Amino acid sequence: MTKADLIDYMAEEAKITKEKAGVALNALIEGVQEALQAKDGKIQLTGFGTFSTVHRKERKGRNPSTGEEITIPAQNSVKFKPGKKLKESVE
Fold it and tell me: So what's the pLDDT on residue 48?
């Protein structure tokens, strides 16, 4: 499903225009980004899941095409843990 498909779905389910659904989806995305940039870097949506930030240390890796050893720099990353209802709906 693409972002456009999701906007269409939201508009149909909520019985609103596609423009309003697009604004709502963009607001959700921006809210999640801001929450993850905050000090605790966590957002929990009960029944859906939890987004959190984790710090990954610098590590060694290999270039798959050449086999050459490379250093992967330290970075912050986003982790998602699905909630119980989401897990059950996929099974």
Answer: 94
Q: Could you give the CA distance from residue 79 to residue 89 in angstroms, rounded to a whole number?
A: 20
Q: What are the start-end ranges of the H helices in 1-91? A: 3-14, 18-37, 84-90
Radius of gyration of the chain (CA): 18
The CATH-assigned architecture of domain 41-91 is: Irregular (4.10)
Q: How many other C-beta atoms can be found within 10 angstroms of the C-beta atom of residue 21? A: 19
Q: Show me where the domains of the chain are located.
A: 1-37, 41-91
3 state SS of 51: strand
Of residues 75, 84, 83, the one with CA closest to residue 53: 75
Tell me the per-residue pLDDT of 11-41, one tens digit each, with 9 for 90 and over. 999 999 999 999 999 999 999 999 999 888 8
Give which of 32, 76, 31, 78 is closest to 56, Cα–Cα. Answer: 76
Q: Please say whether the beta carbons of 25 and 3 come within 8 A.
A: yes
